[in-house]
Fold this sequence. Notes:
There is one protein chain. By secondary structure, the protein is of the alpha+beta class. The protein has a single domain (10-88), classed as Glutaredoxin. Strands 2-1-3-4 form a 4-stranded mixed beta sheet, sandwiched between helices. The radius of gyration is 13 Å and the shape is globular. It contains 4 helices and 4 strands; from the N terminus they run βαβαββαα.
Amino acid sequence: MERNGKSPEITVYTTEPCARCIRAKDLLASHGLEYVEVNLAKDPVGRRDLVKRTGQMTFPQIVIDGRAIGGFEQLVEADERGELEALASPY
């Protein structure tokens, strides 16, 4: 997850109800990272498109700078490696 000196573009694909979706958004927010939420609860076409894009059928799905990183567990792993802090850093 390279920065190139600019804010990352983060999209969080969610559904309802989804505790992991809430936790993923909270984790991003705790680092001051802004994101766009796309709720696919009532959008079967959007869900199919997401599966084509990410290869996953679970929620949430997180895409950072056009790269699908996975779901909540993968986001936590990225946080543990310090990648979220690096994304939040202005340097």
